[in-house]
Amino acid sequence: MIARLSVTESATELIRELANKHGDLMFYQAGGCCEGTQPQCFEKGGYYPRMHDAMIGLAEGFEFWIDRDLFDYWQYSHFTLDVLEGFGPGGFSLESPLGKTFKVHYRLFTEEELANLAPVKRSI
User: Fold this and answer.
1) What is this structure's pTM?
2) What is the DSSP letter of 23?
3) Full set of structural domains in the chain with CATH
4) Which of 2, 31, 48, 87 is 20 to 30 A away from residue 112, measured at CA?
5) CA dihedral of 6, 100, 27, 20, whole degrees rounded to 10
6) What pLDDT score does 92 carry?
7) Residue 68 belongs to what H/E stretch?
8) What is the pLDDT, as a whole number, of residue 86?
9) Is 108 helix (H, G, I), strand (E, B) or coil?
């Protein structure tokens, strides 16, 4: 199966640092409002996915959820979770006090990849 999500080395290092400090984590990428479409990192249980949101994979073992409407738009794209220096548009995410912000890079799946995509988990 083709993964829908991958994580850069720099994002992996930051996730490990945050997990050491905060314990189990989760990621959520909303479709707008205050945080735009920036992925947010929370302590597990610090945010509850809405009905029919999509969990597209694991980032270092932690669930990565996407807003249902945003997933409908990006369902044919691979997500690469990365991290940048600087303060993102939201500020609610656990990496914000460290002067960093998570970012997703997208690319469209090939036809061959689309035929073998890993399934998503939907919240109820």
Assistant:
1) 0.93
2) S
3) 5-111 (2.60.300)
4) 31
5) 90
6) 83
7) helix 68-74
8) 87
9) strand
Residue 30 phi, psi (nearest 5): -85, 175
Residues in CB range of 34: below 8 A, 6 or more apart: 89, 90, 92
Tokens of residue 21, six digits: 């400090």
| CA 121 from centre of chain | 14
The DSSP bridge pattern shows strands 77-85 and 5-7 to be: parallel
| CA-based nearest residue to 1, from 119, 122, 105, 121 | 119
Q: Which residues contact 63 (CB under 8 A, 6 or more apart)?
A: 26, 27, 44, 55
Nearest Cα residue to 101 out of 90, 81, 87: 87
In this structure, the chain runs to a length of 124
Tell me the CB-side half-sphere exposure of residue 35, using CA atoms within 13 A: 19
pLDDT of the chain, 124 residues: tens digit per residue = 999 999 999 999 999 999 999 999 999 998 766 556 789 999 999 888 999 999 999 999 999 999 999 999 999 999 999 999 987 766 789 999 999 999 999 999 999 999 999 999 999 8
